[in-house]
Amino acid sequence: MEYLRPVWNCLRTFCGCIHCSEDIGNQYNYEPSERTYLLADPAIHNSPALRQTNSENLSNEFAQSLPRKDENALCRLVQSTAMNMIDVGAMDLHNLENEEYNDRIKLYSQRLQQQWNSIQHPEKGSSGFLRDIPNANDQLCVMNSTDDLLQMSNFLREGHAALLNLRVDHNEAIVVPFRIP
Amino acid sequence: MEQQLEKALNEFASQPETVGVLLANRQGLCLGAKGQINPNVSGIGMAISEQVCKLEPNLNPPTICLYSGNKRCIIKKDGELTGVIYKQKPN
């Protein structure tokens, strides 16, 4: 806003024509929002002449020296600048009413939810090592059979006991067969 | 000489759902097998138990259960012995 004011002053100095003033006034009264682009045409913004424009200096330096043709060119330049400006001050968040603020929260939340729902989630499917097993939960319940664990424990205990009692029966043979039928 | 071992193998091989039992020593050699189990799996069973024990070396050897359809294989190492039991659910 501070930047626009000297530009506006410069405009009023140089633009005597009513047509020019009306156009600018109409453009200047546009409703700013966060969606307003700073520059519609990048070529205008990139112009070195525009970048170096300082309205106070313009009014002092070119008031008497500019011919009519240059005056119109400068007018158009300033006009396009004013059109492409964003009034940052008008977009201050403090100006938002509480109700409007809440409405925007709801609106953005809805949009976010819509976008989230439209995304393909690859990890939504079953994951893990057992994803190729149907009703894996039932299988896992069966797997944790305490009977199997108990049976194995008893089996190993009996095996140890049997090996401890393994004795070679001396029957005067040189070779003692073990588990050979 | 090995009657007690034979008796133990027979006893456990005849338990419900059990189709075969096997005992292997520390070298993976078969000490005894009974039922529908290949004695040649003794080395594999011992190797599996050895490898799984490396997951948690400070804990007691775990019981390993392998499932395939209605069959399951239970492997456990205990000291120098490794036991392998084949079980099958009746259809």
Automatic annotation (TrEMBL), chain A:
Which GO cellular component terms, listed alphabetically, does the Swiss-Prot or TrEMBL entry include? late endosome membrane; lysosomal membrane; membrane raft; Ragulator complex
One function term, GO molecular function aspect: guanyl-nucleotide exchange factor activity
Q: Which SMART domains match?
A: LAMTOR
Q: How does it sit in the membrane?
A: Lipid-anchor
A biological process (GO) of this protein is: endosomal transport
What keyword terms does UniProt attach to this protein?
A: Endosome, Lipoprotein, Lysosome, Membrane, Myristate, Palmitate
Q: InterPro entries, per this entry?
A: LAMTOR1/MEH1
Location(s) in or outside the cell: Late endosome membrane; Lysosome membrane
Query: What Pfam families does the annotation carry?
Result: LAMTOR
Q: Which domain of life is it from?
A: Eukaryota
Q: Provide the family line.
A: Belongs to the LAMTOR1 family.
Question: What is the protein name for this chain?
Answer: Ragulator complex protein LAMTOR1
Name of the gene encoding the protein in the UniProt record: LTOR1
TrEMBL record, chain B:
Q: Where found?
A: Cytoplasm; Lysosome
Q: Which family does it belong to?
A: Belongs to the LAMTOR5 family.
Q: Which InterPro entries match?
A: LAMTOR5
Transferase: present as a keyword of the record?
no
One GO molecular function term of this record is: guanyl-nucleotide exchange factor activity
- Keywords, in A-Z order: Cytoplasm, Lysosome
- Kindly list the organism's lineage: Eukaryota, Metazoa, Ecdysozoa, Arthropoda, Hexapoda
The answer on whether this UniProt entry bears the keyword Transport reads no
Q: What organism, scientifically named, is this protein from?
A: Bactrocera dorsalis (Oriental fruit fly)
Which gene is annotated as encoding this protein in its UniProt record? LOC105227239
Protein name from the UniProt record: Late endosomal/lysosomal adaptor and MAPK and MTOR activator 5
A single Gene Ontology CC term:
Ragulator complex
Q: Which PANTHER family match?
A: RAGULATOR COMPLEX PROTEIN LAMTOR5 (PTHR13342:SF2)
Q: Which GO terms describe its biological process?
A: cellular response to amino acid stimulus; negative regulation of apoptotic process; positive regulation of TORC1 signaling
